[in-house]
Each structure stands twice: as C-alpha cells, then as structure tokens.
Amino acid sequence: MSAAATALPSVPVQITRNDLSPPRSRSVRLTSDLKTANKIIASIKAANHPIGLELQNAIVAEALRKKIRHRERCRVNQARYRKRQLKAEADVQNGIARLRNEIEHLQSRCNDLSGVPTSRTAWGVTGDYIRHFNYFSAHPGPRYDGASKFLRGIMAPDVVDGSSSGDDTQIETWRRFALYFGDVHVELPGMKMPSEDTLVASTITMVTVTRNTLRYAFPHLNSDEDAGTQGGDWSPIASRILGQRLVVHGSVLFGWDNTSNKVVRFQTQSNLLTPMLNLLGNLEDVSFIFSKALITPDCKFITSK
Fold first, then answer.
1. What is the pTM of this model?
2. Domain map of the chain by residue range?
3. Does the keyword Coiled coil apply (predicted)?
4. Is the pLDDT of residue 272 over 90?
5. Cα-based torsion angle of the residue sequence 71, 76, 81, 84 in order, rounded to the nearest 10 degrees
C-alpha cells in the first residue's frame, strides 16, 4: 500500500465524498488525488524540520479539500458554460427562424411591389412612383425587371418625357441615377393638382457623390478629361465633392389621362446647381464643374458631349 494510504487512511473517503460522477470518472480522480497526496507527503519528508503524523494528515487533507473545491467549481462553471452554449444555440436557431420568416415576408412584399394596382389614381401612382424609384435605386440589378414592369403599367407607351417619349426613357433615367450616385433617396413633401389632369409633386432628392459620379458625370475633372482612363490626375475640386451628400430640391409633373388611367406626360425639374454652390462656395468652381459635365445643373443626363 502507498505511503499516502498508510499515512491517511481517510484519503479515499475524503476524495470520494459527495462524488456522484460515473465510476470511471471517480477512479481517474482518485488516482490523481492519491498522486497529489503522495507528492505532498514526499515534500513533507524532505523538509528540514520533522512534522508529526497528525499535522501531515491535516496538511494533506486540507490540500485535497482545496483541490476538490476547485474541481467542483470547475464542474459548476462547465455546467453553466454548457447551459449558456445550449441557450446560445437555441437563440441562433430561433433567430434563423425569425429571419426566414422576415425574408419570406419581404419577398412577398417585393412581389407585391412589382405589381401594378388595378385601380389607380394620379395621387396613388405618384406615391408608388417615388416608392418604386427608391427601391430600385437601392437594388438596381435585381429590381430592373420589376421596375420596368411597373413603369410600363402606369405610363402610356407614347408618354412624353420632356423632349423624349416612350416608357423606356424612364427606366434608363432610373438606371443612370443608381449608377451615377450613391445612397439615392427621394422624399415627397407635398403634392397638388392645378388641374384635373395634372399633378405636381414637390421632391427632395438626396444623393452621395461617389467615384462613379466623378467617372460618369464629371469625367473632365480629371486631367485627361476622360475620368482618368488615360492615367490623368483628379483635380482638387473632385476631392472636395467626393463623398459629399447633396440635397436637391425639385418637382415632378404627371400628366394624367382619366380614360386609360395612365401617365401621358411626365416632366422632372431638379436644382443641382444650388447644393453644388453651397458645397464649393463660388460660382467659378461651379461653372467649371458643369462646363463639360455629362449631367446638367437641372439634373438631366447627357448621353454624349
């Protein structure tokens, strides 16, 4: 029998007291604790001053009690950790389920959004137009077909848009807005009908000047006058406007046909000049920006110069 067992006949009892773990685990811990007791006894025997058997028993017993208490704390902590892990896993699963439900709900709303209501008024179409435009600007790729369907549904095939005609003109304008600017969002502060077939909506359009804005709208701000494709350098003005948020006030006019319940005339007006002037602070720089720009001060896109 080992020295620990001889010196401490109660060690196994001390070790296994209140231990409800499986037999195999108890056996492993008993072996470990006996090794601990033997090490302590060996250390005591190597001491310069002799220590009595009773004190040896007390020292070993206290060391084992500390070890057992530490083991119990670890067991409790592990149990708490496992409980937290199980709760976290359950929360993740519940979160996934909620997200799936939200995705299904949003997909349903998207499907509804692409549809054209059977009963339309000029007021309703105006609100739908702004809502569709905002959604398209945020997701131009996947929403292109839905936006085209919506515009064809509310506009006459020969709708007049300024100097252009046809509903394809509108989707091209939307596409360019989403391409040229970042974070495009339009608000509709007010609407009025000066006549029974004309509705005018006030608009506030917020856009961010991005690298695409410089490339497509203001390519001449690069020294090669071709958006840097020839290796030129961007002017200081380009650096000043890059990343800036512009607030553009304007209006949209809808000419309404009560027979077909469709838009037959459409005209937009936006004041891009004022926010640029507020940003740059002088007319000289503003004049230079729009001198060869592919967008006009009233926010019309130019195909070529």
1. 0.61
2. 20-113, 122-301
3. yes
4. yes
5. 180
